[in-house]
Amino acid sequence: MKISGRILTPDGWIQGHLHYAAGITNVEADPAAPSDNLILPGFIDLHVHGAGGTDIMEGGDAAQRVARLHARHGTTTMLGTTMTAPPEDIEYALHGLGRAIATPEPASAQILGVHLEGPFLNCKRLGAQPPLVSTGTLEQVRRWNAIAPIKALTLAPEIPGHLQLIAQLSAMGIRVQAGHSAGTYEDGVAALEAGLAGFTHLFNGMSGFSHRAPGIVGAAFAHGEFAEVIPDLQHVQPGALRAAMRAIPRLYAVTDATAATGMPDGEYMLGSQRVMKCMGCVRLVLGDSLAGSALTMDQALRNLVSLGLSLEDASARVSRYPAEYLGLQDRGLLTIGQRADIVVLDPELQLRLVIVGGHTINLAQGTPQDESVLA
To answer: Which residue in the list 187, 232, 256, 341 is annotated as catalytic?
Structure first.
């Protein structure tokens, strides 16, 4: 198959043709190619709780239903993200995730693994997480990892025993992130020295920055290479987003999407918590805390561009940097040999096509689409 237009390659834009099957087979320059398509790598979202009225903690086929909706918004790879809950509830969700990971659907974003967000958090910085925290142990993580592969794990590094756990989990290949943390700057630095890889929804659910108490945010600014951020323009004010992009070399976007994503205003579930979506914002019903988002990755891209980022920079933050964070060698760029995970936008940055592993998604229905539409 072939798509024509402006192609974002690692060396910059070219006008031409991108050839692909399951993988990208050729990128051909042709200044006369007539299309105004903007062709980018598929989006990679490492923090997804739900979509379409479905929460991943429901287990069963919930993760696959969530992945279908996110694919229709350009996400070609994602991590299914859990909530703090009793161990048996987490395990139930992990069994569903494990099945979705083992048997991917062509009409869905590929779920590569799990982002375990909780229960190893600080009760002082719960945000929308329920008060069911516990201290993490290697044995517990190994048990859960055997059910479904854990690729990223959020914990509060200041909890006694967690520095040692960071080192142990890093040795297993799990990317450990600081989040829902009341730790100090010194706690953050010690965690980085122990192997901490990143920071969960930067600014939110962590001790903030001030000039005499830099907090976890300060540790991220001063020493972090990677961090995730929610660019819905509600979780983080644009000025703070710009500051973070200058400070953290590979700050990348996540949605932290909930069951409210893609749905009308109303009440939904986030794990065991009731949340309300109103005018695009998701908050706890009992309390005023932000509770994840209704963001999709195509809107995240548009929001970043609206802040003044080039499309190349914005694309890196929704594709290349999250791929690099997980150490993925086969996606996040448009080069020969990469998996054919592709998004095609119009000049207004609205989606025209989404291709996952060479399969074109019907954006209206979330099903595989006849390949002839690209001929």
So the answer is: 256
